[in-house]
Amino acid sequence: MTKFSTKAIHAGQEPDPGTGAVMTPIFQTSTYAQTGLGGHKGYEYSRSGNPTRTALEECIAALENGTYGLAFASGLAAEQAILSLLKSGDHLLSCDDLYGGTYRIFERVISRYNIETGYVTTGKPEDYEKAIQPNTKLIWLETPTNPLLRLVDIRAIAEIAHRHNILLVVDNTFSSPYFQRPLELGADIVLHSTTKYINGHSDVVGGALVLNDHETYEAIKFYQNAAGGIPGPFDSWLTLRGIKTLAVRMRQHEENAFSIAQFLTEHPRVQRVYYPGLASHPDYALAKRQMSGFGGMVSFDFKGTLEDVDQLVRKLNVFTFAESLGGVESLVCHPATMTHGSIPKELRESRGLTDTLLRLSVGIEDIDDLLLDLQQALAD
Ligand code: P1T
Predict the structure, then answer these.
(1) Residue 275 sits in which domain range?
(2) Separation of 75 CA from ligand 1 center, angstroms?
(3) Which of 32, 43, 47, 284 does the annotation list as catalytic?
(4) Are 141 and 157 in contact (CB under 8 A)?
């Protein structure tokens, strides 16, 4: 079983040996009968392991072409599990365009344990090398970034990180393993908010990690059990079900996003469009090399005031004004006041995240309806 769509449907999942059920059962149990001291079938307590969660972990690992998968209660719980590898006095290096909640965990949670984070302007690999300190233990990338859709060269940064004995984490939430597989490019840990494309239906909050190194896996698995931020069996099952259509969903997300990016580029009320599939995007060449498609996220700067932005989001009918992304339905978000509100305004603006930036998570509805919706909302 080697091809992506086949793995999305079958990896980690066999018909249930007891009943023949084709779909993985929801093992809604907290504990497992043991026959005597140490007599169990691999499961003792559902914080440590649950068969529905195991199926999900194996499936996501297979999609990333990785060895080990670990599932969590949210993307941020997965992030915290990675950060548990650090100790007081360590240094973390991150790209500067990233999800506001990730910035918040760096600045307001791990900072309390004397772990400092340095930020590098997202693009150039040599800037990461210059910012490395003797105590740097992790480099953290999002690519494409949230919300400005910049790209970072994973292969180049993996080479730098490994030369300095540093682990490379890549948050692959925006592209999904369908379009990009960071482990194949040298990353050590791949992170997902499975809330997004992996589940794809906006009905579960979850996270996952995939990695190849056994020792790092054991360390994070220990933390998963010790700290307990695990997904329940029903959420694991819903996510497994969502994954089955990941390949077809991603193709449609991309096709729709491409049309919308082109439409916005030509619109007089749009200042600038951010989509890595446009030849005008500063990272277009890297996108073609590093990804097999450009994804379903499009951001744009709107010409107007904050009030005009408010009017625009109120006028949209098919696009729902909401946080999050990656579901089959189209969403529009205002990063400055929503997903990136935890980044101070001056810092946000210095990184190019303006108050008039809007982020579209382009769904898989009919493209004609999506374009008409934007057209009517953007009309004067
Ligand atoms: O929301 P949660 O499942 O905890 O995942 C956090 C997270 C991690 N990484 C990236 C790139 C993300 O975009 C997110 C969550 N992002 C949103 C909720 C959002 O609307 O951008």
Answers:
(1) 246-378
(2) 6
(3) 47
(4) yes
Give rounded-to-5 percent helix, strand, coil for the chain: 40, 15, 45
| pTM, rounded to two decimals | 0.98
357: which strand partners? Answer: 301
Instruction: Report d(CA 380, CA 361) in Å as an integer.
Output: 23
Q: Domain end: 185, 218, 243, which one? A: 243
The DSSP-derived string for 134-179 is TTEEEEEEESS-TTT-----HHHHHHHHHHTT-EEEEE-TTTHHHH
φ and ψ at residue 187, rounded to 5 degrees? -65, 155
Q: Which two tokens stand for residue 170?
A: 């890549």
Q: Is the CB of 295 under 6 A from ligand 1?
A: no
E strand spans, 133-286: 136-142, 167-171, 189-193, 207-211, 270-274
Among 34, 11, 33, smallest CA distance to 24 is for: 11
Shared domain check, 285 and 332? yes
Residues 227 and 143 in one domain: yes
| Tokens at 262, concatenated | 């082109």
pLDDT tens-digit readout, 184-239: 999 999 999 999 999 999 999 999 999 999 999 999 999 999 999 999 999 999 99
| Residues 97 and 149 placed together within one structural domain of the fold | yes
**Token code pair at residue 323:** 């946080």
- The four Cα atoms 265, 271, 276, 279 give a dihedral, to 10 degrees, of 50
Count up the domains in the chain and report the number. 2
Spatial separation of the C-alpha atoms in residues 23 and 4, rounded to whole Å? 19
- pLDDT tens digits, 9-33: 999 999 999 999 999 999 999 999 9
Q: Ligand 1 mean position to 359 CA, how many Å?
A: 13
- Domain end, chosen from 203, 227, 243, is at 243
Candidate list 90, 171, 188, 283, residue with the active-site label: 171
Contact between 175 and 144 (Cβ < 8 Å) = yes
Whether 60 and 185 share a structural domain = yes
User: Which CATH number fits the domain that encloses residue 354?
Assistant: 3.90.1150.10
DSSP SS3 for 258 = helix
Question: 43 near 51, Cβ under 8 Å?
Answer: yes
